[in-house]
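[#protein-structures] MJ: dropping FAD-binding monooxygenase here for a structure pass
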Amino acid sequence: MVVREIKRHLNVAIIGGGPGGLSTAIALSKIPNVDVQLYEQAKVLREVGAGISIGQNSWNVLELLGVADTLTSGHVTSIILNLNGKTGEEVHRVERPPPKDQKRANIRTQRTKLQSALVAHVPPGVIQLSKKLVKVVDQNLAGVELHFEDGTVGLADLVVGADGIRSVVRDTAWPEYEIKFTGTTIWRALLAWDEVVALDERFATTGWWHSPTTHVWFSPVGEGLGEIAARAWHDPKIHSASKVSWGVPVTKEHVESHFTEYLPQVQEALALVKEGDWREFAAFSGPELSKLTAWGNKVVLVGDSSHALSGAFGSGAGFAMEDGYILARALEYFRNDVHRALPLFDAIRLPYYSRMYLHLAGEQKKREAKLEQHGGAEAASFDDKVRIKVIKGGGPDMSWIYGNNIGAVWDAAVAAIRLG
Ligand SMILES: Cc1cc2nc3c(=O)[nH]c(=O)nc-3n(C[C@H](O)[C@H](O)[C@H](O)COP(=O)(O)OP(=O)(O)OC[C@H]3O[C@@H](n4cnc5c(N)ncnc54)[C@H](O)[C@@H]3O)c2cc1C
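AK: finished. structure tokens for FAD-binding monooxygenase:
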């Protein structure tokens, strides 16, 4: 019989300092007998991107991590519009005034604000910058070897792959896994918001302005700033070769050229972004994993590395933070026995991600069926295609995502274990 050694003391290496890595570091630092090191490739922890939505699911986990009160800046998104970008027709409006018992309103904030709030709660000495992981090597009972670009080598009992959608940890431990360009390219910028709102007062409200294959998102993010995130879809068979990087600077002309059929005020707003301020993000996705752990419970994935859904729900930072929280709870519950804690992490998080994959496949089928009712992609008018694209009220209940209470999820898992 093989007797597994239960490591009461655990050396954990977290790869990546995004929301997943930082929240894992915060949560693990609070449990006994765990040494945590977080390795981040960047020289300075600085989020690329622009804004980020913090809904109830994210607030719930931020509360549990003790970070919620540190995140104080943002624009309350009590109204969200969907408009036809060519005619200005309001196709759909969501109004959700914060209920009285709801402590924190949904907000759109700057990504840097979330990041600095999380960093403020990571104990000193945990984060190591300029440490780009190039590979991990399974050293069996000795642990996992970490090889960094600077030539240094480390060893850990447990490696947490929080290194995002292009994860080196995942690509080493799951060598068959592949992500592919979805066809969607996103350009994002932050800018002073008063002059944008002067073009059309509807820009003061968070909203999507649509064409059938593109949209432009406008949202204030607090502190006088706002965010424009513009998306276009191109056939991935033709365009995927150039779409390998993330957060690449692109010219104004390049971005604006995709939105020439939009209303003049939308085009003028795009033109307000300064040369050099646009960043391009090519959306990649990959299939569902059958397990989030590998190498005999010495490797675990959290956040985007574990579910390459290309930001489909606009809540990936929330999911990443929930992962970090559950991983720490599971380790604490089983006193750092990875052979019991990691299967529990898998059992809680894997079905949740499966449900997301299933939901997206269903939504795609529904859109295709609606398009068929309008005579197919060729026959449907611009306005019909925009209406089909915008999912109207009466759609599926999404509270399992946006209202997820990860503390209650953990309590239910513990109750189930106790019941046997
Ligand atoms: C257009 C868009 C809009 C989005 N909007 C929202 C939103 O409104 N709300 C929301 O919650 N989510 C949103 N998301 C999703 C969210 O950005 C991600 O899900 C979230 O950032 C995932 O966090 P993470 O920590 O897993 O990965 P990341 O944020 O990608 O962080 C990974 C970190 O790992 C580091 N790293 C990578 N490789 C290495 C290496 N080899 N060695 C060392 N370090 C490494 C990176 O530098 C980075 O700091 C959006 C995503 C997109 C694309």
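MJ: nice. The pocket of flavin-adenine dinucleotide is lined by residues 15-21, 39-42, 52-53, 58, 132-133, 162-164, 168, 186, 281, 283, 303-304, 311, 314-318, 320 (CB under 6 Å).
AK: one more thing. The longest strand covers residues 180-192.
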